[in-house]
Specification:
About 5% of the residues lie in helices and about 45% in strands. The chain has 2 helices and 21 strands. The chain is mainly beta and about 400 residues long. The longest helix is centred in the first third of the chain and has 12 residues.
């Protein structure tokens, strides 16, 4: 599982459009006009001869019957055509322009930047919080990591300015493992359509068995997509890759790993915000499994982007609450609930409470057979502290992430 977590941690360290139509509107049809009716001018009037009989008695014309004047031609009625409806020009739907293809590079890192991820593998969920503790003049940086379900010394990872891993003590070998050249899993300046291929040798100086492993990563940046994870919705590069991790021994080799991975990298912060991974291992303890990783909380000074959530404090904590309460061990859940106990020479105290997304801590201290008091404080990523109240005053309390 440590090898899996290594893959997660190394990956996570690597690194929001409208438009209109140009279509010309269809011309407006012409409106038909009724044709003009020709009128023939009357012929000259000739006076009647004296012998002409008297004119007949005029009669009323039948309604609707055209009246014909003597000596004038009959004029047909003019037919009035109904108005022709005007068809409005056709407007094409608005089509948003295609997003820029890149390249998207890594922003500057700052001490105090952090990212918290959830990882679910075979139904087992953990959170991993990475905090930048050092930035070199050349742009490289170091992470200190904590895992919610693990106790012990923090993992320290060292990266170059391109996000390639140089060393880590997270492999479970008891010493720092180095990578030459730096182990990259996606290009630092990613462009849609770009392909990449990297190779690195992992050296394990303290191991008496497998002293080195060969790592490869080959893939392509296939698209820009909108991706939603617990930490928000991002415009991200979709990166598809195949990776291998092989034991270089010819005799007694342990498991080798083949990994198929689809990851999304935010175009602004450069953070990997999600990965879906399928791993097939062969050899000692070989098995196949899948995992899903998502960004749950983060803060980045250079881009002024953050999403705060109590999950960044998840895991075991220990510390001193003075002589009255003694040493306290508590656990913080993904949602910020706190439970645990304190032990002093003469009393045992149960502890319940919470920490919110801003890091405000509230603790209820219930002494066995005694009073219940409340302590408050403030949490940072790996530290929290406050002033003791009530029977335990004066003094301070402090806890550190294990």
């Amino acid at each position: 599982m440590r090898m899996r977590i290594l893959g997660l941690i190394s990956a996570t360290a690597l690194t929001a459009c409208g438009g209109g139509s140009d279509t010309t509107p269809a011309p407006t049809p012409a409106i038909p006009v009724a044709p003009a009716v020709p009128v023939t001018p009357p012929p000259p009037v000739v006076p009647p001869a004296p012998s002409t009989p008297a004119e007949p008695t005029p009669t009323e014309p039948t309604p609707g019957t055209p009246v014909t004047s003597p000596g004038w031609p009959t004029v047909p009625p003019v037919t009035v055509l109904p108005p022709v409806p005007v068809t409005p020009p056709v407007t094409e739907p608005t089509v948003p322009p295609t997003p820029s293809t890149g390249p998207y590079t890594l922003p500057a890192r700052t001490v105090g930047d952090f990212a918290t991820y959830t990882d679910v593998t075979m139904g087992w969920k953990v959170s991993v919080t990475q905090r930048i503790t050092k930035v070199d003049a050349n742009g490289g940086w170091e992470n200190a990591d904590s895992v919610s379900q693990e106790k012990g010394a923090q993992t320290i990872e060292v990266f170059d300015k391109q996000g390639g891993m140089l060393s880590t003590n997270s492999s479970g070998y008891g010493c720092s493992v180095t990578y030459a050249p730096a182990a990259l899993q996606s290009p630092p300046g990613a462009t849609v359509g770009a392909t990449f291929e990297y190779a690195s040798t992992m050296s394990i100086p303290c191991s008496k068995e497998e002293s080195s492993r060969a790592l490869t990563s080959k893939g392509k940046v296939v698209a820009i997509e909108s991706k939603t994870v617990p930490a928000g919705t991002f415009t991200a590069l979709k990166i598809v890759s195949s990776e291998t991790n092989f034991d270089l021994r010819t005799i007694g080799a342990s498991a080798n790993y083949w990994v198929e991975k689809t990851c999304w990298r935010d175009t602004v912060t450069g953070l990997i915000i999600a990965c879906n991974t399928s791993t097939d291992s062969k050899g000692t303890g070989g098995m196949s499994y899948s995992s899903a990783t998502e960004l749950a909380s983060f803060s980045q000074a250079a881009t002024k982007r953050e999403f705060l959530d109590p999950i960044r404090f998840a895991g075991p904590w220990t510390g001193s609450f003075g002589a009255y309460y003694g040493t306290c061990d508590v656990n913080i859940t993904f949602t910020g609930l706190i439970t645990g106990a304190c032990k002093a020479a003469t009393r045992t105290t149960s502890v319940t409470g919470s920490v919110d997304k801003a890091g405000v801590v509230k603790l209820t201290m219930s002494v066995a057979g005694g009073a219940t008091e409340t302590n408050v404080g403030q949490a940072a990523l790996f530290d929290m502290s406050g002033t003791l109240a009530g029977a335990a005053a004066p003094g301070n309390w402090a806890l550190k992430h294990k």
